[in-house]
Specification:
This protein is α+β, with helices and mostly antiparallel strands. It folds into 3 domains: 214 residues, no CATH class; 123 residues, no CATH class; 106 residues, Bacterial OB-fold (OB fold (Dihydrolipoamide Acetyltransferase, E2P)), CATH 2.40.50. The strands form 2 sheets. It has a 5-stranded mixed beta barrel. Strands 1-2-4-3 form a 4-stranded mixed sheet, sandwiched between helices. The longest helix is centred in the middle third of the chain and has 47 residues. It is globular, with a radius of gyration of 27 Å. It starts with a helix and ends with a helix.
Length: 548
């Protein structure tokens, strides 16, 4: 909607300061409109059971104590309280202000975390409420949007000011507007990254609020381990007896775009927690270069960073940290060596391989254009040779795309468990592990969301996010409406590629359900569309080259 209004605005409004002011005003109105309707949309799209306060107190007295304490101390209205009946452990807060807040937990939080950890997660969400993060983050993310509006207005205004005009002043105005557009685009990106930093700081503040309410940072730290890496040793006894190793995944208190999470839990024969499994899972956050990449682009700090900060708060409250990452570096080095930058750079090279070839062709074309404009003369750069370069280049791009796809979607599938996969430090979004997993679909990838095409999977060793996203919106929507609800609760066998972004997940190739149905995902095959397109463009360029 914003994009449509913007296009109409720049087309009909004059390229003047008045036009800019109108576009800025429209942008502010769109931000306010989105701020106003977002809670309503969330309430509509998510299946939330709202619980009256009296019922909440009766069912969850351990949470009601912290809630009453926070409400009384901060003199705010009682938030509306909701439950999503999904076993994906998640929690989130939304609303217009601290006096109109809604706090939502899932059944997964209530099942797999002990009461103190539930209280810590709940108090974290209340921290967002009392800090007025709804309003603050709306303003923070509105600033980059305003700068982007100015940049786009200046770019289009420069185009309209120069169109059909030979006046020297109009040309100078056009150049000035291009300079303003370039500067605005630069400040837009800078301000966007600053807004992400502020968002991560707000998460740390909410963590501190949780520690302050409970007077113990360990409760949230162990809760984060259970949710992000999955250590569960004191949850439901009946569930514990089914396996010594259990898994859970990430909360909505992580970045919603990035929370493709899983956790593992490792319990020794004596019932003691194995810190080695936790540290191997956390080592990716601490030492894999891809973690730094995702941290810079995330609204939430990585779980290990948050736990380390909570450990620092333990001294203030006179308690000893329960989660220790002191051995994580050694465990990482045993598996991946001292440095992982060589593998990161190779992954990055493979990820950008076709793009690098395309950028090289663009660069050579620019050189040719400047030669045609008379800046210099290079005999090789003529129209016929450039067509030949592009023809060959498109074929190279096609072959490089095949290489990239085969690298990202390796063969050699073997039976694995969640525990086998999550403790691998060397995996990345590009460097994958082909695997078969057997277990049960226990929930949706986004709990309570009607249109979630992703799912949550559990085997005897843990729980993992299942990425079924095809990449074409209508296909994803059809699958979410037709198949996801039917798969939840069924035993399945999944063939796919294990990857890790900020948290681990498996990208689906095929799901076989106990009902006998097979669900294919053709996202890998869709990549070959670009290969075919590149080869066709190469043929077209060869055809025109032969006409010279």
């Amino acid at each position: 909607m914003y994009a449509l209004i913007f296009v109409v605005g720049v087309w009909f409004l004059p390229s003047t300061i008045f036009g800019l002011l109108i576009m800025v005003a429209l942008t502010i109105l769109m931000v306010l409109f989105q701020y106003g309707i977002s809670p309503l949309i969330i309430n509509w799209l998510y299946r939330i059971e709202w619980i009256p306060y009296e019922q909440f107190v009766a069912e969850f007295p351990h949470l009601a104590g912290s809630l009453e304490k926070v409400v009384a101390y901060n003199r705010i209205k009682m938030p509306r309280l909701g439950i999503i009946h999904d076993m994906n452990p998640n929690a989130f807060t939304f609303g217009w202000s601290k006096n109109s807040a809604r706090v939502v937990l899932t059944d997964g939080i209530l099942k797999y975390l002990n009461k103190k950890e539930q209280d810590a997660v709940f108090s974290h969400e209340l921290g967002h409420v009392v800090h007025s993060d709804f309003i603050l983050m709306t303003v923070v993310f509105a600033i980059p949007l305003l700068l982007l509006t100015i940049a786009r207005w200046a770019y289009y205004a420069s185009f309209f000011s120069r169109r059909g005009s030979r006046d020297r002043d109009d040309s100078l105005i056009g150049v000035a507007l291009i300079a303003i557009a370039a500067l605005s685009y630069l400040t837009y990106y800078i301000s966007y990254f600053i807004s992400l930093i502020i968002s991560r700081i707000r998460e740390y503040y909410a963590d501190e609020h949780s520690a302050e309410v409970l007077e113990d940072p360990n409760a949230l730290a162990t809760g984060l381990v259970k949710i992000a890496y999955g250590l569960l040793v004191d949850g439901n006894i009946e569930e514990r007896q089914k396996s010594r190793v259990r898994g859970l995944r990430g909360l909505g208190i992580f970045d919603p775009k990035a929370a493709k999470g899983l956790g593992i839990i490792s319990v020794t024969k004596t019932g003691l927690v194995s810190m080695e499994a936790i540290q191997k899972a956390a080592a990716w956050d601490l030492y894999n270069p891809w973690a730094k990449y995702y941290q810079a682009l995330s609204t939430h700090p990585l779980p290990a960073k948050r736990i380390m900060r909570l450990n620092m708060l333990c001294e203030i409250y006179g308690v000893k940290p329960e989660i220790d990452f002191s051995d994580a570096k050694r465990l990482k080095e045993e598996q991946a060596g001292k440095s992982m930058w060589d593998e990161f750079l190779w992954d990055l090279f493979m990820k950008t391989l076709p793009t690098l070839v395309f950028l090289g062709l663009i660069g050579l074309t620019i050189v040719w254009i400047f030669g045609e404009l008379g800046f210099y003369t290079i005999s090789f750069f003529n129209a016929k040779n450039m067509l030949l370069l592009w023809a060959v280049g498109f074929y190279i791009i096609g072959f490089m795309s095949i290489v990239k796809t085969r690298y990202m979607y390796k063969g050699g599938f073997e039976d694995k468990t969640v525990l086998d996969l999550v403790t691998n430090v060397k995996v990345s979004p590009i460097r994958t592990i082909p695997a078969f997993l057997e277990g049960k679909i226990v929930g949706k990838g986004v709990p309570g969301y009607y249109f979630s095409e992703d799912m949550y999977f559990q085997d005897e060793t843990g729980l993992m996010y299942v990425d079924y996203r095809f990449g074409i919106g209508i296909v994803d929507l059809f699958f979410s409406l037709r198949s996801v609800n039917r798969l939840v609760g069924q035993n399945v066998r999944i063939k796919g590629w294990y990857r890790r972004g900020p948290s681990p997940y498996i990208q689906v190739d095929t799901i076989w359900s106990e009902s006998g149905k097979r669900h294919r995902n053709y996202s890998k095959h869709l990549r070959y569309f670009w290969v075919v397109l590149a080869f066709i463009l190469g043929i077209v360029c060869f055809y025109f080259w032969l006409q010279f």
